[in-house]
Design a protein that fits this description.
Shape: elongated
InterPro entries: Split_barrel_FMN-bd, TR_PAI2-type
Number of domains: 1
CATH superfamily: Electron Transport, Fmn-binding Protein, Chain A
CATH class: Mainly Beta
Pfam families: FMN_bind_2
Order of helices and strands: EHEEEEEHEHHEHH
Protein name: FMN-binding negative transcriptional regulator
CATH topology: Pnp Oxidase, Chain A
Strand content: 35-45%
Helix content: 25-40%
Oligomer: single chain
Largest sheet: 8 strands, antiparallel
Structural class: alpha+beta
Number of helices: 6
Length: 207
């Protein structure tokens, strides 16, 4: 990943926080038929990413393969009109702000039904937490759950390296950064408020 020094993010709390808040990953691997990419949620547990895929997925046949998991955080277009320096010099151009985390590791296929069920219960409990009446795996008939477990395999990726790129206007002076935050909040498009909040936290030195 192209990584200018201004945008390097190494704080574990920030990297792990992005994975927690944006768990839907793109997992890239090199298969016999070429490079393949699959998309599914992953959780970070004790130095490893855990998830599951359908038994028919090509990843289910790639035990031991080296993979790259990409987690995409908030992102948005940035107008040069938001920079105070633009009015002075006209030497500003559009860009895109975003935060991403790349995780590299070795793929392990898990066939253990108890491991899989525990994973599904954790994922479900996490994502159902905001529902008025959260659905739980135990709400489904046992025979139905058993049948579904037979149709999937577990994915475990032992983390060998993790790198973050948080491109949040750090290469601009403070007044431009504050201008971008104000512009995002004023525009109020999909994800704009979240990206503005991430930028504001960075200004405050928070993860």
């Amino acid at each position: 990943m192209y990584m200018p020094k201004s945008f390097v993010e190494t704080r574990p709390q920030a990297l792990h926080g992005l994975i927690r808040d944006y768990p839907f990953a793109t997992v890239v691997a090199s298969a016999a038929e070429g490079v393949v990419a699959n998309h599914f949620p992953l959780e970070l547990v004790d130095g490893a990413l855990h998830g599951h895929v359908a038994r028919g997925n090509e990843l289910a046949r790639m035990d031991g393969a080296e993979v790259l998991a990409v987690f995409q955080g908030p992102q948005a277009y940035v107008s040069p009109n938001w920079y105070p320096t633009k009015a002075e010099t006209q030497r500003e151009v559009p860009t895109w702000n975003y935060a991403v985390v790349h995780v590299r590791g070795r793929l392990k296929i898990v066939e253990d039904a108890a491991w899989l069920r525990a994973l599904l219960e954790r994922l479900t409990d996490h994502h159902e937490a905001t529902e008025p009446r959260p659905w739980r795996v135990a709400d489904a008939p046992d025979d139905h759950v058993a049948k579904l477990l037979q149709a999937i395999v577990g994915i475990e990726i032992a983390v060998e390296s993790i790198e973050g790129k948080f491109k949040l206007s750090q290469n601009h002076p403070e007044r431009n950064r504050l201008g971008v935050i104000a512009g995002l909040r004023r525009r109020g498009g999909d994800g704009d408020a979240t990206l503005a909040e991430w930028m504001a936290r960075l200004e405050e030195g928070a993860p």
